[in-house]
Write the structure tokens for this entry.
Amino acid sequence: MRIAVVGSGTMGHGIAEVAAMAGMEVKLIDISWDILNRAKERMLDSLKRLHERGTIRETPDTVMSRIEMSVSYDVAKDVDFAIEAVPEILDLKRKVFQELDRVVPKESILATNTSSIPISDIGEITSRKEKVIGMHFFNPPPLMKLVEIIPSKYTSEDVTRSTVELAKKMGKTPVRLRVEVPGFVSNRIFLRLLQEACREVESGEATIEEVDSSARNKLKLPMGIFELADYVGLDVVVDLWKVIVERGASDVKCSSYKEKVDRKELGVKTGKGFYTYPAPGKYSKVSLPAESKVPPERIISLAVNEGAWLIENNIVNAEEIDTVMRLGFNFPKGLLEIADELGLDKILNALREINSRGYEAYSPSPLLVKMVSQGQTGKSSGRGFYTYGKT
């Protein structure tokens, strides 16, 4: 199997490394040898660590021998599959796809690692839009198991199946969307968590620390919501928010994230965001109060509502949403599993209460309303998003 990866930044070199570890022949393409040589050093460092831990048996040099680097697209003229991993700028991605379309064999598949841009917008530029698909890896690709597979409205079923199989060959767990939606599953749910966290604070209902304490201590999430936003990068958060809302998702008024970005306080990467860190690029777990008055069902209410919308619109099912949140965000349990434990009636009440104050995005999903009206309130009733046996 021969694979081309275009873009050798954090995601690109990670994807190239994953493909080479799986025994594939990789062509890694970027615009300069300086960038490629930095990527080579990072891949070697990563492979050495994986080898020392016993994660991989082959030596780093053996794995690296399967990666050929180039500043020309011509090395991709005989690949079976190409993955684009350049920055989230539509025009830039389209330029890459025009080049790949020109060079790569006509029967080969072209994939984009975009985290939020619709695949159709990228595929339309090519002469093979039925062979263009989204393959969204999570950072860092060598360690994160999840890959979201997103067919566009043009993608053929064969191409989708082949991409799912490729992800499995790379040792990944694929979650396939049936219909393309902006932000896919991961970032749509993440956006809803960010929006509710912001609403809590900007409405004066809670402090940043109280929201994060409830997320960490009551929901048992690995990080608070604001802490996670800092970790991801507040500039990234503002960008994904803009992309998803501009393409039709309901918005929640919020200025906190953008104000931080305007002040160049981007989170961990600059050493300061909602919290202060030891140094730029150096994350340390944020110290939070043990107690919080913020009900956990309120924090996840909007995210659960989004999950219900995704199910209702036949984009993914409950298990797939929960796989995304466990493997992509390191949740201890799936989001909808947590919702079933807290009680879907409580979540619906939280949505209705916030919605009644004029927040349109909190209008409850018809699926959630129907489930609760039929007594499917979660674990305590024996049925919610999942079915539970009587103990």
About this structure: The CA atoms of residues 120 and 152 lie 5 Å apart. The radius of gyration is 22 Å. The longest strand covers residues 132-137.
